[in-house]
Amino acid sequence: MSRAALPVSATVLTKNAERHLARCLDALRGIDQVVVLDNGSHDATLAIARQYANVVIVEHEFVGFGALKNLAAQHARHDWILNIDSDEVISDALAQSLARADFADPAAVYGVCRLNHYRGRAIRGCGWYPDIVPRLYHRRHTAFSDAAVHERIIMRPDSRSVVLAGDLLHYSYEGGAAELIAKMQFYTDLYAREHAGKKSATTAQAAAHGLFAFIKSYVFKKGFLYGGDGWVIATSIAANSYYKYIKLKEANKP
């Protein structure tokens, strides 16, 4: 993405994102505007963001991922919104695909193939790849759901789904198992709070979901090919499935 900047506003949510943010924003230099929405960082995140001429900083308390992403889009200069996590990096191949995107069709919703990394290793098994996620959309056509967790871009009846070539590099688990566990705890807590009193959950349901998630990740999605890393990833996926239902069960019956 060189020469003229793409007529797109990228949105990036941050909180204590100093480890990866510079790498993320470096890859977005070809985007006309980047809206960094921060919710309470106390590290060097904001200082890093201020170094980029195309970055606008907005600060807001955490109100759920979906709501924050829509709030960030409201501060955008352009109608085309590219949502990127602070630990994600646009590859050169994906940048080239973005430059060729059809910005004349507001009904197009563009997905990207996210390539997740664990301790610096690209993982193409375990159900982690191709992790296709919709990320580029026209804000007058659609938006993110308001879900606190597992938010998605809403596909309208007339939306047109397109998958861009090239990978979105995801570096969320450079620290290994500790980061997997921390993220699992955070997301399962959010899931339980969001669905408490609205959905039921049982211990048997939790166990069944956890067991199936492990078998799917480690066996069917070939996590075993990644040795110990594959085992850790598969067990974390199983734990996520198990504990979100256990926490929901406990939230329903305090």
Distance N to C terminus: 53 Å
Total domains: 2
Number of separate helices: 7
Mean pLDDT: 96
The rough form would be described as globular
Indicate the structural class. Answer: alpha/beta
User: Largest sheet, if any?
Assistant: 9 strands, mixed
Q: Indicate the percent of residues in helices.
A: 25-40%
Runs with pLDDT <50, length 5+? none
How much strand? Answer: 25-35%
Verbal overview:
The chain is of the alpha/beta class and 254 residues long. The protein has two domains: 6-173, Spore Coat Polysaccharide Biosynthesis Protein SpsA, Chain A (Alpha-Beta Complex); 177-252, no CATH class. Helix content is 36%, strand content 25%. The chain contains seven helices and nine strands. The protein has helices spanning 21-26, 45-49, 65-74, 92-99, 177-195, 203-220, 227-252; strands at residues 6-14, 31-38, 55-59, 80-83, 88-90, 108-118, 121-122, 131-138, 160-173. Strands 1, 2, 3, 4, 5, 6, 7, 8 and 9 form a nine-stranded mixed β-sheet that branches. Helix 5 packs parallel to helix 7 and helix 6 (203-220) packs antiparallel against helix 7 (227-252). The longest helix has 26 residues, at 227-252. The protein is globular and about 55 Å long. 38% of the residues are buried. The model has no long low-confidence stretch (mean pLDDT 96).
